[in-house]
Write a structure and sequence with these properties.
By secondary structure, the protein is mainly α. About 65% of the residues lie in helices and about 0% in strands. Helix 2 packs across helix 3.
Length: about 130
């Protein structure tokens, strides 16, 4: 039973972290297609976050499957395996980037294209404004 609790704590920790990129629980819930009361019940421990909901949020945010089941920090008795730490670090994408990706995926194909073109234009402007290294 302790293992189940650890998974629930891990999922709750990830949920809290991911929600930081949103202005409210309601905004996050709406973006994920869930009710705000359901999200609140998970956060307060009234309900558990099941695998289906975990996979649904992972998919919506473009996270790898199993992200919610990976502890945010390695256990105290972990051997400090650099490969494991690197893969965990890669999965911890800043919440504002995840929100941007989730919002992008909700756009129509036409608006996605427009947004990509706009971003490419801003990159060109930034490159032109970089100080020369001569």
């Amino acid at each position: 039973m302790k293992n189940v609790q650890n998974v629930q704590d891990t999922r709750r920790d990830h949920l809290r972290r991911l929600m930081q990129g949103y202005s409210s629980q309601r905004q996050f819930a709406d973006a994920m297609g869930l009710s705000a009361s359901y999200i609140n019940q998970i956060l307060t421990g009234v309900r558990e976050m099941g695998g289906l909901v975990s996979r649904r949020i992972e998919t919506a945010l473009g996270l790898p499957e199993g992200y919610f089941d990976t502890p945010l920090s390695p256990p105290a008795n972990a051997s400090g395996d650099e490969a494991g730490s690197a893969s965990l670090e890669q999965m911890l994408i800043p919440t504002h980037e995840l929100k941007l990706l989730a919002d992008y995926r909700r756009l129509s194909k036409q608006h996605q294209k427009m947004l990509r073109e706009t971003a490419a234009g801003y990159l060109l402007i930034e490159r032109e404004n970089l100080p020369s290294s001569s």
